[in-house]
Queue: 2 jobs
Job 1
Amino acid sequence: MSTGSLDQLFEKQERIYPKRVQGKLRNLKWFIMIITLGIYYLTPFIRWDRGPNAPDQAVLIDLERGRAYWFWIEIWPQEIYILTGILILAAIGLFFVTSLLGRVWCGYFCFQTVWTDLFVWVERLVQGDRVKRKRLREGPWTFEKMYKLAITHTIWLAIAWWTAGSFVLYFNDAPALVMSFFRFDVSPTVLGFMIGLTFSTYLMAGFAREQVCNFMCPYARFQSAMFDKDTLIIGYDESRGEARGKHKKGDDWEGRGHCIDCSACVKVCPAGIDIRDGLQMECIACGLCVDACNNIMEKVDLPKGLIRYDTENRLDALKAGKQPPKLRLIRPRTIYYTLILSVVGSVMLYGLVKRAPLDMSVLHDRNPIFVKLSDGSFRNGYDIKILNKTYEDKTYALTVEGIENAAVTVKSAGDIAADELFVPADSVGSYHILIQAPVKAAEPRAVILNLDDTASDIKDSYKSIFVTQRN
Amino acid sequence: MTKNKTQPKKDIKKDVDGLSGIETTGHDWDGLKELNNPLPRWWLWVWFVTIIWSIAYFVLYPAWPTIANATKGTLGYTQYKELKESQDEIEMRQAAYLERFEKASFEDVMNDPELYAFASAGGRTAFMDNCATCHGTGATGFEGYPNLQDDAWLWGGSIDDIYTTLKHGIRWDEDYDTRVSMMPAFGKDGILTRDEIKSVVHYVMSLSDKSIHADVAGETIFMENCAACHADDGKGLTDMGAPDLSDAIWLYGGDEHKLYETVYYARAGVMPAWQHRLDENTLRQISVYVHQLGGGE
């Protein structure tokens, strides 16, 4: 054991050079990569007409004005519970898919996987496949090594820069921001975010790669809680493969397994593991080893699927020499997740459908709680906030219910009557109002403040209290 | 100890821990030994960086105390300067509104949403610092200190009246223009007898409480002694600072005992003239704030 060196503190990253592979799952991965990256890079440019007073970007998070737009849905900061709902849906959805199909999110959709895949593709394009890359990297600093590395890193940085730029577009008007780039007129905030995200993309997809899954991502660690023996995993069929051994063309298959120990599955693995050791924490279930093995099986004229998507239950049964049980997709676990998913989904759908274009909240004054006036009547003050979620300027009428002969006055600049509370389009109006009523001193009584849009039948009301002196 | 001393130095061998194969520090605490591992490299680097950082800090910022003061640092930074800068920034932001506010009449302010909001906010802060001590943070006052939320005003509740009261105070001798009136101490000075005071107190109570039947004697005493300031109907006179006795508001309390005390000894509340302590803009802002509380006329 050496003393005082860094390798005592953590294991050093062993560089992985995934080999190129062709096959059905690889094609699926390319397809998903194109779709997901396409969505990510192009979405900010989709336009969506919302009328003259609102942005026409389909997906936009306007931090300055506190609005989030998603096509026909608009969310205000007050509706942050929708974000909570989305997060719950995403989490439960992930649990559901994972318990059913294993780590398909990790293998096909996770941005870490997709961008790493893209970066490896660039690496391969410039430097060649596995062996060439390894040789170049470990070899001496030649001119070839320098220019090839330079090209690779330049392309990586360009992709990273574009990725960062696309992220920022979601928070700004996309065409305007792109134009401002050409004019070299970008705000320091935007630039700061872009530099940070460029660097992180470059670092994570170019260098950290599988280390992110192994050491940074919590999901990789707690996935075991969602797994059971009926979950689809990438499995090596030991019953068929063992005993493994080298094979020459024409050799007999009697008395040995189908695995020819060619290590094709190891060479293509982006996580750098040997799937034949069984289910491992590092496996992101990308299925590239399935393709690699199938290609080999085809060459040696054996049936495909030595490595395949299967369940632990089935593989264990085969190993024990028993008839493998059927796939069980409907299990208590998947039923729970479906139930939670549909409950959360329905609540959110209800919330979005019932989203009111008008919202009023009322806060009763705390100091003073009430004021006694010279004629013996009482007065209470209230802060009211009116959320006009439409794209038109509105005038609202406020009325009070629950107290007889109540008079409402609005305290603000100028003389504003309670039936002409003006709130501009897509904004919040604040007023301080006073309710005065000739009532006897008694316990606090309930009042209802009603707000009516004078131009349409949109209404909202709020239940508050009216406090008087207690004798 | 003595044993160690007698041992020749060259005989002390490196003490190596058997299990890990790492040298120990040589100290022995009841059989416990500490491995002499070198510091982690990252720790060492962080340490070097902090040293470099501290040198840069030492040069740039005030760092080392001298007998009377401290080293100044090349940046010339002080916390006082930083405070001054942020204050200047705030004042600069206020300046735009203040300039407009100075020129605007009260009527302009009450009709301009921006100036109205500016004045109420500024007035509120000044009120909390200067007025809340007596009138309360909710401006509802205490016994003897008027409630500014209600619609009963001793010296008038228009914004100009409020401004005048604020500026010159009430019974504030140092201010020539202060508001003054003097209620006689009817009992103490022997103007009315005890029975006469009781009688007039009953009459005064009957003004706001219909269930009390006052006798004619009380009314006569009131007309002769009180009506000059409080008016024939008891509704008072804001010019005299004489309160309305027929309403539901009592500054010093409205029960028989309290009213007797008031008539016997008289009342003469004092409020400072604030023009000597606050500038014109602040006075005007407080006026707007008090007026918009709800009772302003």
Note: Residues 1-7 of chain A have pLDDT under 50 and may be disordered.
Job 2
Amino acid sequence: MEIFDILVSASFWAAVLRIASPLIFATMGELICERAGVLNLGIEGIMVFGAFAGWMAVYAGLGLWPGVLVAFASGALFGLAHATLTVPFGLSQHVVGLGVTLLATSSAYYAYRLALPEVTSPPRIEPFQPLDIPVLSDIPFLGEAIFSQTALTYLAFATVLIVALVLYRTPLGLALRAAGENPSAVEAQGLSVTAIRMGAVMVGSGLMAVGGAFLTMSAFSSFFFEMVNGRGWICIALVVFGAWMPGKALLGALLFAAFDALQIRMQQTPLGAEIPYQVFLMVPYVLSILALVLMSRRAEVPAALMVPYNRGER
Amino acid sequence: MRLEPVAAPGLARTLGLPALAIAATVVVASALAMLAGANPFATLGLIVKGAAGSKFAALETLNRATPLIFTGLAVAVAFRAKLWNIGAEAQLYAGALMTVLIGTQMGLPGPVAIPAMAIAAVLAGALVLLGPVLLKVRLGVDEVVTTLLFNFIMLLFISMLLEGPLKDPMGMGWPKSEAIPRDARLPRIVDGLRLHWGFGLALISAVVVWVIQVKTTLGYEIRAVGQNPQAARFASIPVGRVMVKTALLSGGLAALAGFSEVAGLKGNLTLDLSPGFGYTGIVVAMLALLHPLGVVVSALFVAGIFVGADSMSRAAEVPTYIADISVATALLFMVLAILLTRFRVVRG
Amino acid sequence: MGAREVVLRLEGITKRFGKLTANDDVGFALHRGEVLALLGENGAGKTTLMNILFGHYTADAGTVEVFGQALPPGAPGAALAAGVGMVHQHFTLAGNMTVLENILLGTRPLLAPGLGRAAARARVEQLSRDFGLAVHPDAKVKTLSVGERQRVEILKALYRDARILILDEPTAVLTPQESDALFETLKKAVAQGLSIIFISHKLHEVTAVSDRVIVLRHGRVVGEVATDQTDRHRIAEMMVGAEVALPHPALGTPGAALMELRDVSTPPEGNRTGLRRVTLSLKAGQITGLAGVSGNGQGALADLVSGLIAPDSGELRVAGQTVAGWSPRAALAAGVGRIPEDRHATGSIADFTLTENAVLEGYARPPFSRAGWMDWTRARAHAEGIIEKYDVRCPGPEARIRLLSGGNMQKLILGRALEAGPKIILANQPVRGLDIGALTYVQECLIAARDAGAAVLLISEDLDEIRALSDVIHVMSEGRLSPEFPRGSKTPAELGQWMAGQGFSDAA
């Protein structure tokens, strides 16, 4: 049975972690925003810009880690634009989010064309290399599957842990969650809902951009147009699937990546060759919709998600 | 800071702020041109000239505006009911697909084929949006994400057909469909001028949508549901049913964009039929403040920017994406300006 | 109250919103160990004053001093830090978080590494015992009763070492018995040296708990008296300028039952209580009053009568017929006139004109529409008729309803319901938040409708209003309905026991 063969190969599981990594970053980013009460539909465009900015920084001579920082900062900047319009001004998060996606995407393309007017094939950078964790990477199967990833993948998993710790174990996380549940509770304690929400959107957007940067700096080594290809929207579905909890969202991203990796491999089997490849490519999007349908009415949506807060108004 | 409602905004406020938003957009575009090492005034001049500087340019703008009027109307109708249809792109392709199917497979004579294609397109587009809307109404699934994801699924589906059953045998391997016969194409409005009746249909659609909104019970219901679904439900308006009707209307309008592009302009179906008309429709609708007649104006404006930028980038070394950035910037500045016509920012 | 140390002093507070002066040169002092009642009608400026004290608004003039230190204006948190705690009328709690999390919110610097839950829990439990505020620290707030939530709010303030407690309309959501428990807590707090400002418009409470009364009217302080040197009538006169009496309508003459519920149950929805085997008969020419603490099933009953929900089990009969396919439209067709609880969220559409709002319930039928086409001329004439007949003060039928005051908005909603000639009228909190003029007018309209033969269901949290207007009274508690009590047959204390759930046959 081909599926069985695929599932027991270590390289398959290594691929799952690789495919999941950008989704994990961006899903955590979106989760932070939504937990604070802001739906960030800028995610798709911010991932595009992050992919470009990180790659460009490395191409221009900065190191890989500075590149990641540049991506993060660029994402935070778009987050600032988003948050300024949606938080103190309380504009429609749908409209502003889509506007930010348009703006970030076209800015990335414009800058790419400006920086590299002449190229026909996209230039390459030296991406993050797999990092074998001493001892652990020698474990049979697990070593290859889990402990020979690039540093960014390890960082993705660390991010989940950090997000969970901050959300549930610190005053900051408490205030952030309260801002998404009942902003007047936050304001009544003398804290600024505006500052908390704006900060959350900026940090969240930074993470989205790092998710995009994973594509150019770890998965591939070039920047292509349309390389994000709906991953941002999928991450929004993953946040819902994960019921706005970091651990569950991570699980969702892994499950999703497993299906994605499986369909890629199925394409190469004799059975897969019979089916148009587009059917396989549809799988992630169909899965996302299914995830939304499954979780409908089950999860506890942050009560103040998409509800702007105007001080002093009750 | 806080926002305080302005009781009676004056003319300076209601007109001045949107004008300021446009001015700010021009400033951004100029800065972008300078980044590219071009003279901003010359660049802007080239854009205006490329959009409206000649009869050819103006007609090109009208042609480009046509699908944008349809998708803009589709979005305007849906957003009025707070139905976040971000899937106009998928509905457009559904319409284009039905147009090609009817046009190439049925062998109908022109006068029958054209209305048949249009009706089939409308039905297909309506159907594509029906799924997400039923999921929303019945299960509470957020339609933003589902309609977005449908765009990708639809494009892959079209790609599959174009490389399979619909592939043009004479297409030299390109994924494109056969062309619909000449007599099933939309005629030109004036002989010799490259402007087809799709534009006329778009204008008629805008008027029809406007009449629906202000004169019919459906329009009243749509506005009520969009403004306050709780009060609408209390007042005996069937909210779910109104949502579904809105979806059918919106999906159908977006599909007409696909119909008009295939039957009026391209003749066949390709994967690059729409350079994001569905998404740009959102900008068009927002710039028009969701007013159906305003959609016509804002579609012309947005189309002018795109056509002008295309023409400009051939002459100057400024990438054509300057148009996309300008449009996105205009959207963000405009929603802010509109807000500030109704609210003033106060301290403390 | 020997100590005369001033703990809080407001001086010359003035705040304007456009043309409206919400606070006009307001000043008073609060002493240590004192309960000061701040009394005033809705719109008298109490809420604005508190928002200024807490830095949510910046006053145009005036100063706030806490323990001798001036508070910086417009700095939320300054009052908290200085030891002032506020229990808002609308609780500021996050329902999806635990009691402990709600209490901890904002108590530590945001960037502190941890929450210190263990120590906090011990402290909360200690405070609970000291002040008689029993509540489980790990319960999610949304599972708590309204009374328990209020205890969480008080604990929040105490946890932050508040020396001054401000309670905004704290008893509005409590049963009389729960109110008594609250007063006990307040006594304990005063005994420990706290000072309390008690905001209310209920005179009997004010006279029961306060040492001193300050009356606000139209944004000004119009009176200040020691509680033991005055009586309710004098305070009432200060509040409204003249003494108001609740109406004393003669009893109605009941006729046939127009709407009957037999053993009707509905499922709970989210936090909302459902109905538990409710049997009720609304008779022509009678006002049926429904008393109870809010959140005990009144919402479900109102939704049922107005057609928003249908019985899950049991029978709903209108004019003797069991209804099928119950919906808002069916309810309207059956002659139910509806005045919803929340005129902003449910009763009107803010950005619609008065004309559009006037036909919200009737738009689908002639004369307002035919074959799907609206007849705006008729609609406008209808709106003008309501404006004229019900004295709706407005710029005209084409003005947006959001510009209207609450009272005028309510008059339009009332007119919309009454002009349809309803046989059954649901009036859910019809006078909440209205000024005296509009309040009296709405009550008179309801009595007139009763006298004309309508069956009126009046739902209110204000026991005095229920007792004055109703021909018969029911009490709701946890979704159950008490038997019918004729007007005057039960004292407020007896009704309060029913409100607290005593007397029901299936009481747990």
Note: The longest strand of chain C covers residues 6-17.
